Amino acid sequence: MRRLSLLTVLLMLPVLGAATALPVAAAPVRQAMLTAIRAAHHTDFDRVVFEFAGPPPAERDAVYVPEVIGDPSGNPVPIAGDAFLRLRMASAVGHNDNGDITYGPARRTYALPNVMQVVNAGDFEGVLTFGIGLARQAPVRLFTLTGPSRVVLDIATPFRTVDVRAHFLDLTRFESGVEPYTRAVSRPVIPPALARGALQRLFAGPTEAELAQRLRFVDSDATGFTGLSITGSVAKVQLTGGCSSHGSTFTVADEIMPTLKQFPSVRWVKILDPSGRTERPTGNTDSIPECLEP
How far apart are CA 259 and CA 90, in angstroms? Predict the structure, then answer.
């Protein structure tokens, strides 16, 4: 039997080149974790800041939409406002390994000239989605900052506002039996539709600071309102969504009525259920639907 030389054996072995290189595991993409949301008014614009631990989200975009759709539910997300901005950020999460939210309330209200609400609309498969409810559609500037990582939205406020009042339930007064059970807070509204603007701010609810003062918005299952009209000192407004007092003596009607009656043009308020019914549809009297009776 002929013996092969060592050189011959070596020549017969396959050469390890690029085509046969051993696989190398790709480095995992590091996701940004949302840790805080802030908003404030500056000269000529409202600024909303999303702060992250780690790198900024790899992708981000902000567009105006007719309504904000939840991800992955596919259902509309209720947000107060006349214009809706959807912000999507990829390679980003808003929860930790235990599934706990890492940035605070998922729905928050602001008393700013344009920004009314910031609401989480999705945290799914590394994509964070937020809806921002605005008083009016306006130019938007989207950019990032570092140290720490931030995604920033500057939303223009090219209009003047008038301060009005929204009336929320004051839990301290209610629990003590001290009337009135509501407390008025100031909100900026774009004229001339002051009554409508005041109701929008009411349905947006209290700010975080006001929640800490034990103010609450009792919605009685209503998600909003439509068809506000004022004729002959009578304001009519129809609830949308649901309508139920849940047996309580305090309902959304107790917030709507003083909010509308602050205006000299309104003396009586008639609140209609989502089907358009109220107990006293005519005459110079206040009226609520049956669904808001205790």
Answer: 41
> 98 falls in which pLDDT band (50, 70, 90)?
very high
Report how far residue 93's alpha carbon sits from residue 53's, in angstroms, rounded to the nearest whole number. Answer: 10
Strand partners, 186: 165
Residue 25 — pLDDT band, cuts 50, 70, 90? very low
Gap between the Cα atoms of 91 and 275, Å rounded? 44
Query: What size, in residues, is the chain?
Result: 294
Q: How far apart are the first and last CA of the chain?
A: 105
**Residues 6+ positions from 158 with CB-CB distance below 8 Å:** 44, 138
Secondary structure letter of residue 27 according to DSSP: P
Contact 235, 260 (CB under 8 A): yes
Q: Would you say the C-alpha torsion 136, 138, 143, 145 has a positive or negative sign?
A: negative
- Which amino acid, one-letter code, is at 210? E
Q: Which helix (H) or strand (E) element contains residue 165?
A: strand 162-170
What is the mean pLDDT of the segment spanning 79-88? 97
